[in-house]
Amino acid sequence: MKTILTGIRSNSVLTLGNYLGALLPMVRLANAHSKDSHVNIFVPDLHSIISDVDGDLRQNTLRTLKYYLAAGLEVNENVHIYRQSYVPAHSELCWILNCIATMGEASRMTQYKEKSKGQESCNVGIFDYPILMAADILLYDATYVPIGEDQFQHIELTRNLATRFNNRFGEIFTVPAKTADQVKFMGMSDGIRIRDLLNPEKKMSKSTKAENSKIMLDDNPAKAAKKIMSATTDSFGKVKFDMWSQPGISNLLQIEALVNDVPLQDVISTWASETRYGELKKKVASSVSEMLTIFQEKLADISDGEVFALLESGEKYANEVANAKLFEAQKAFHLR
Ligand code: ATP
Ligand code: MG
Hints:
- This protein is mainly alpha-helical.
- It has two domains: about 1-185 and about 305-330, Rossmann fold (3-Layer(aba) Sandwich), CATH 3.40.50; about 210-300, Tyrosyl-Transfer RNA Synthetase, CATH 1.10.240.
- It has 14 helices and three strands.
- It has helices spanning about 15-35, 45-50, 55-70, 90-100, 105, 110-115, 125-140, 150-170, 180-185, 220-230, 245-260, 265-270, 275-300, 305-330; strands spanning about 1-5, 35-45, 80-85.
- The protein has a three-stranded parallel sheet with strand order 1-2-3.
- α10 runs antiparallel to α13 (about 275-300) and α11 (about 245-260) crosses α12 (about 265-270).
- It starts with a strand and ends with a helix.
- The model has no long low-confidence stretch (mean pLDDT about 95).
- The chain binds adenosine-5'-triphosphate (ATP) and magnesium ion.
- The site of adenosine-5'-triphosphate has 18 residues, from α1.
C-alpha cells in the first residue's frame, strides 16, 4: 500500500485561503484514497516553533486536527493522525540526514532565504526545517505529499537526500514522487491561490496584519460577510475572470466557486453580464458566511476527547512505523 502524507503548521487560526487551497483539497484526496493507501495526517508542531506561535501551541494543534474533521475527513483504519513531536524518530532521523545534507543545498532553499531575509539573527531551525521535513516524509516511505507550490523545492531536496542515502547504504528509503507527479496526483493543473481582500495582487496570508484583508475560520460569519463587501475591486464595471487585470473580481468569482463546490466556469457564466459589483459581492458574502456558519457548527461538535482517541491510535502506529525505519538508518551508520 502506498502512503500519502500531509500536514499543516498550527501557528494560528487558519484563513479561508488555507481552507480552500490546502485543507479541503487534502481532505478530499484523503477520502478518495484511504481505502487502498495509508493516509498520514500530522501536525508538524516542531515546524511551528521555528517562528512565533499565536496562542497556545497545544491548543492550536488540537484545533487544527478538528479542522480536518470539520472539513469532512473520513477516518478509517488506514487514516493515521499524529503530532510530530510525539514521534521522536522525526528529530532523530533529521539529525542523521543533517549529516548527509550539504550546507550548499540547504542554503539554496527559497523558503529559508525568504524567511531569514531582513532578520537580524535567524534561528537555525529556519535553516534546518527542510531536512526535518525530509525526515517527516522518509520515515513513512511516503510516495505522495500533497502540499502547496511553496514547498515543492523541499520535495526535491527530500528526493535528493533519499537517493543519496540509498546509493550509499542500500534501498532504505522510498523516494517520493517528482513534484510534477505530485501535482498530477492532486488532480490540479495549477495550485489554488486565494487573494488578499484589500490587495488582491497578493495572496491571502494569515500573517498579514490588516484584519479586513483576510477571512479567518473563526470569524463571526456576519463580520466575514462585511469583509467581502469591502473587498477591493476595480472600476471596469465588467465581471470578467482575469487575475492580471481584475484580480479582485476574479478572486471573488473563485471564492464563490470553491465555497459552493461548483465549476468556476459556471460561476463566470452566471455573472458575465453583470455590471454592478455590489450584487456579486452580496452573493459571495452570503456564500462565505453560510459556509463559515456550517463549518463552525461542525467544529463545535467535535470534542477534545474524540481527537485524543484518534491521536492515541495514530501515534502508536506512527511510532511503530517510524522507529522501524529509523532503526534501519541507524544501522546504516553503525549506530546500532
Ligand atoms: P503565513 O503568512 O504564516 O505564511 P499562510 O497563510 O501563507 O501563512 P502557510 O502556513 O504558509 O499559510 O501555508 C499553509 C498551507 O496553505 C500551504 O499548503 C499553502 O500552500 C496554503 N495556502 C496559504 N495561503 C494560501 C492562499 N492564499 N490560497 C491558497 N492556499 C494557500
Ligand atoms: Mg505562507
